[in-house]
Amino acid sequence: MLLEKKPFEIVQQLYVDALDLPSKHSVDQFQFDAAMWFSAYGHHRTALEIMQAIDSGDHELNHESAAMRLYQLAKLTAETQSQLDVGLKNIQLYAALPTKDQTIPQDWIDFRMAQLKFLQHQLPADQEQLMALESTTELDDLRDKIQSFLSQYR
Q1: What is the C-alpha to C-alpha distance for residues 59 and 137, in angstroms, rounded to an integer?
Q2: pTM of the entire structure?
Q3: 22-75 pLDDT, tens digit each
Q4: Can you spell out the DSSP letters for 125-143?
């Protein structure tokens, strides 16, 4: 069954139902994978709720997913423009990880940090940092994202 062809509400109910089923697999990893799916299809609020429901203290996520969860929490709080302090804390934690544990390019990390700071305070210095990153990054998708984001505030 292809989830992509199902209405959002049906997929969301399948997710909720699956949480109650017995499984040999990690519930936290299942939640992480589900949150990533919801995020990929633009359901950022649902993805954020699921990502926050993961108990990071029980260490059931694989190492890469645990690190990625930090970045995704920052991304999802920025995309939903909610809980910005949570997002900023998580992007700072992600940025502090050893480079070998980071899978996100540094320019994207810098963008999320600047984006969250801008959303919190909307100071000219934060907007200037975003514009500087826009002009220096070599990542076309990031440049497009920054342009799209800043166009909302010009």
Answers
A1: 35
A2: 0.86
A3: 766 778 888 998 999 999 999 999 999 999 999 777 667 888 999 999 999 999
A4: HHHHHHHHHHHH---HHHH
